[in-house]
Amino acid sequence: MRPSLTKDISVDHFKNFYWLKEELQSFCRENGISASGSKMEISNRIETFLQTGEIKKPIRKSNVHTKSLQQMNLSLDTVILENHRCSQHVRAFFKTVIPNFHFSTYIQNYFKNNIGKTYRDVVEAWYKEEERKKDPSYKKKIAPQFEYNQFIRDFFADSNNQGKSREEAIVEWNKIKVLPGSNKYKPHYNVE
What we know:
Elements: H1 11-16, H2 21-30, H3 39-52, H4 64-71, H5 88-97, H6 105-113, H7 119-133, H8 147-157, H9 166-176
Helix pairs in contact: 2-3, 6-7, 8-9
């Protein structure tokens, strides 16, 4: 069964089991490791700690760009720079152009992957994504750190689970997440 998350756990056991972000953060606090950042960043710090005993500091992003962006007037010609921040100031600007704008995962990734493009390009990407969402076959991409969400989606995509409830899907998730190895849903998966 699933081992306890302590500093004596092997790296292989750590990597082989599913951990909640709260568990990872608790481990970090107990061992003097920064508990900030995404689940993947925290996991990488713990893995380094377990392998080497080294306590890695989180990568701090410069606030210089954020402050200068907040002070400048934003327009559709504003260029996306490296370390772009999805701030309240940026959101307020986009709401003047797109009334129902919000920072979806898709748009956040667009900013990250399109340095050098303009806010005009962001608006165009937003509307294209909204059109894609209208297609009945559209499936929003789930980032790798959201294993639970992917498992639940895959559970309901399996024709053998038609008519089953969310509670039944969660029961199956709770069975698989405590086992070593992949947490991906497998059709006809049966854990006894």
